[in-house]
Design a protein that fits this description.
- A hairpin with a 6-residue loop joins strand 29 and strand 30.
- The chain starts with a helix and ends with a helix.
- The protein is built from 16 helices and 33 strands.
- Strands 5, 6, 7, 8, 9, 10, 11, 12, 13, 14 and 15 form an 11-stranded mixed beta sheet that branches.
Length: 833
């Protein structure tokens, strides 16, 4: 380069530095102003301001000089990032951490990198996910609880504030291709409709591509699936299609596409499958494979002992660790009868198959990275679960999770009717709560319980060839989900920005784990010295190897009928010296609260100091107050809903709710001369809901009959039907009145056509709390699954072949007492995550 060109380059660097930040903090390639020039950012402001034009503009283009702004790229050597987190997998579930279910993909990452045995979540999934993608504590990120019970306080409103820019936004603005595959339960429920706004959807939070579902869970056979913000239905007409495989296919294609088009551009793939959250939906091949291994035949007590022995043998737990006792509130395996054991083994086999299947598909994604030649340049973090294993199947499990949400336990003999179909699309299953306790071995408690490691301990493996020099090593330093983003920023060389989209950023709460990658640091003290935990009133504080925790006042697998204790004075506290490396009491077995009151008081004071600092206050262990607290709502206060024609994919938050009230549905339709069939309006599906439609018929018989069908949680269906409609305009009315005020009360419905009553029928019960959250409100067709089983059965999408001129819902006042909601809502709210 001659002196003249060098001077031009220097002046260009100075010019762009004045707009993009300090030149010393940036890496520039090529001649600035040329089309091929690139630059990194100092990260002070994202996106960066437009650089000052560095060329020359005169009257004639021939006398002017063009100047191109440099393309923003990440720092040299910045790796691809594959960030994986499964759902509802307890610490002791995966084989990598002592579990009986083989997880070879996670084993692969652990063997080529590190296993972290003292890594923690928040105890519920959407709070954990908010913490993971922001690097801030979950209350700071707005997710002190699940969105369904959000309240108008900064720590509980289910809104990730602009001051908490996500890892997606930071890496995107620094030149990464960013994507999100799988579960999204961080969009406020009232924004999860086609009406938006979309700034709290993955695309609006910095993830350029989204392929996944919105909400706490979804069928893997017929999910509420989106590509970016558009609902898609790739499963229609494809028996055997499963999201767990389709999601892996989509992620693999995305990575290949990025590298084919822009080989030098690194990617962030945030990969969060639905497994192993209920519904447990593996393929039949995986159910057979795991069932044939007889992993769970000995029952939950024996499985727990086996897991703990494996953990000792593998070095997951130190030699001094003790297995915590089995709780008296859960049955011992040997106390069960033959049919109970048969059912519960089936439940666990399907759960195990789902775990193995999920890990297998994750393994395909990892293998694709290697096949692309990118494995050595990819930092892979694989977190087993976003909280402890889930007890929300209640004591006996359920073939339909929405029975739990509605407070309806299903007896064992009734569940056995679904035994041959367990895990198929005919079920929405969950296992019995004792299995959850076993999957959280060696700890006490389960998902929802933030005060104990059974709710918060997660196995985590991390690999980056050439940067982690202790392959197969184990790390016992205390760490938390909020440490992932700081780790990624250190690995990529990208600083935390001061401003994102004009908003000054809050500092990260987490610390980088990169110091643990060096073998020389295997036993150094953790740099994460203090961490609070809080969820639904249960709380704890960790500090320098000590942990103080409240004793849970309710059981997470039961619908509590007793009032919650005073949130400050009504809880007992426990104290443990959990240690960190080889010493201490890592399983919280030896409560020292009585013998060390001064230490306990010191820890309690520290909790409240941290709570004040991180938006945890005001503490609240209520359910009714929070559930009923005013929230932004698209449907709140509306009694009349009018629609002008076909509309599909509206989640319950944007749909008229007919629960626990009188209602009238009026459909004005036109029937063509050759008759019509198809869906007029529906909400729900196979596992609960309703539909108003014209029957399909069989062989031309019974076609075109107006039918209103009510599906009570797949337990009982009630139908109203009239005669076939002839050509022309008709008005169909279904009017329902409950017999008495209250949750889930029965009532009488009347179906009329053109002012004439054609059917009158009654039902003893109705759905008390919720229709399936992964189903939607549809007009003119039926997406996902149908409400009918045998009588009036149809195949989705069952499009209406007439014309819907107008559809009206006229809703009465909700007829529910405060006491009834208090008995029902707490477990429902927690389970929906």
């Amino acid at each position: 380069m001659n002196a003249r060109h060098a001077f031009k380059l220097l002046t260009s660097v100075v010019a762009i530095a004045s707009c993009l930040g300090s030149a010393s903090a940036q890496q520039v390639t090529g001649v600035l102003g040329s089309p091929s020039a690139t630059t990194t950012l100092d990260g002070k402001q994202l996106p960066p301001p437009d650089p000052k034009f560095g060329g020359v503009i005169k009257e004639k283009a021939s006398e002017s000089k063009a100047w191109w702004a440099p393309r923003v790229v990440p720092p040299k050597g910045a790796p691809n990032v594959l960030l994986i987190m499964t759902d509802d997998s307890g610490f002791g579930a995966p084989g990598t951490f002592g579990g009986v279910v083989p997880t070879p993909a996670m084993d692969r990452i652990a063997k080529s990198g590190l296993r972290y045995t003292n890594f923690h979540s928040t105890s519920l999934c959407s709070p954990s996910r908010a913490a993971l993608i922001t690097g801030r504590n979950h209350h700071v990120a707005g997710f002190g609880v699940v969105g369904e019970i959000a309240t108008g306080f900064p720590g509980y409103n289910s809104v990730i504030r602009k001051e908490n820019g996500t890892i997606g936004a930071i890496l995107r603005d620094n030149g990464y291709a960013t994507s999100w595959f799988g579960k999204n339960h961080n969009t406020p429920f009232y924004q999860a409709t086609q009406a938006g706004p979309f700034d709290q959807w993955p695309n609006g939070m910095g993830f350029e591509y989204f392929y996944g579902f919105v909400g706490g869970d979804a069928s893997q056979w017929q999910p509420n699936l989106y590509r970016n913000t558009t609902a898609i239905f790739p499963f229609e007409g494809k028996p055997g299609w499963n999201l767990t495989t389709a999601m892996a296919d989509e992620a693999i294609q995305y990575m290949k596409q990025i590298k084919d088009i822009a080989p030098e551009k690194p990617f962030l793939v945030y990969y969060v499958p639905g497994g192993t959250h209920s519904p447990h939906h593996p393929t039949p091949e995986w159910i057979k494979k795991i069932s044939d291994m007889h992993l769970f035949d000995g029952g939950w007590n024996k499985v727990r002992e086996t897991i703990f022995a494996n953990q000792k043998r593998q070095g997951i737990m130190p030699a001094n660790a003790q297995l915590t006792p089995w709780p008296k509130e859960l049955p011992e395996w040997d106390s069960l009868g033959f049919l109970e054991k048969k059912l519960f083994i089936k439940q666990a086999d399907v759960f195990g198959a789902y775990l193995a299947y999920t890990d297998h598909e994750i393994g395909r994604v990892i293998q694709a990275v290697e096949d692309m030649g990118q494995l050595d340049n990819t930092l892979i973090i694989y977190i087993a679960g976003d909280n402890g294993a889930s007890p929300e199947g209640m004591l006996n499990g359920t073939p339909n999770e929405f029975t739990t949400f509605n407070g309806v336990p299903v007896p064992v003999d009734a569940q056995l009717l679904w035994y041959p179909f367990w895990g198929s699309d005919k079920t929405f299953p969950h296992f019995a709560a004792p299995w959850a306790w076993a999957m959280d071995t060696p700890f006490k408690w389960t998902k929802q319980v933030a005060s104990h490691f059974g709710g918060t301990a997660q196995g985590m493996a991390m690999s980056w060839p050439g940067h982690i020099n202790d392959e197969g090593g184990i790390r016992r330093q205390f760490h938390h989900l909020i440490d992932v983003v700081p780790t990624l920023l250190e690995a990529t060389g990208i600083p935390l920005p001061e401003m994102v989209d004009g908003i000054r950023q809050r500092p990260m709460d987490g610390v980088s784990m990169a110091y643990t990658w060096d073998k020389a640091n295997a036993n150094v003290a953790s740099r994460h010295t203090t961490q609070y935990f809080e969820m639904l009133g249960n709380r704890a504080i960790y500090h320098d190897g000590w942990l103080a925790a409240t004793t849970p006042a309710t059981l997470p697998w039961e619908l509590s009928t007793k009032p919650a204790p005073d949130v400050i004075t009504g809880y007992q506290w426990e104290l443990y010296n959990v240690g960190e490396l080889q010493a201490g009491d890592p399983t919280e077995s030896n409560d020292l609260a009585a013998s060390m009151p001064d230490k306990l008081k010191q820890m309690q004071d520290l909790f409240y100091a941290e709570a004040a600092k991180h938006d945890v206050l005001p503490l609240d262990n209520s359910s009714l107050t929070r559930w009923n607290a005013p929230k932004p709502n698209l449907t709140g206060g509306r009694r009349v809903f009018t629609y002008s024609g076909p509309l599909t994919g509206v989640p319950n938050s944007g749909a008229p709710s007919i629960l626990n009230k009188a209602y009238t549905i009026t459909a004005e339709v036109t029937i063509p001369k050759d008759g019509a069939e198809g869906m007029i309006v529906t909400d729900g599906g196979r596992f609960g809901g309703y539909a108003l439609f014209l029957s399909k018929g069989v062989g031309g018989i019974r076609k075109g009959k107006p039918v209103f069908l009510y599906n009570l949680l797949n337990l009982k269906r009630t139908a109203w039907a009239g005669p076939e409609l002839g050509a022309g305009k008709h008005t169909i009315v279904f009017d329902y009145k409950p017999d008495s005020p209250g949750l889930g009360k029965g009532g009488t419905g009347v179906l009329s056509v053109d002012g004439k009553v054609v059917a009158r029928n009654s039902m003893d019960h109705s759905t008390p709390i919720t229709f399936p959250e992964d189903e939607t409100f549809d007009i003119g067709s039926d997406t996902r699954t149908g409400v009918a089983m045998l009588e009036y059965r149809y195949d989705v999408p069952f499009k209406f072949t007439g014309t819907i001129n107008k559809l009206t819902f006229d809703l009465g006042q909700e007829q529910v007492t405060a006491e009834e909601r208090e008995r029902m809502q707490e477990t429902v709210a927690k389970a929906r995550d």
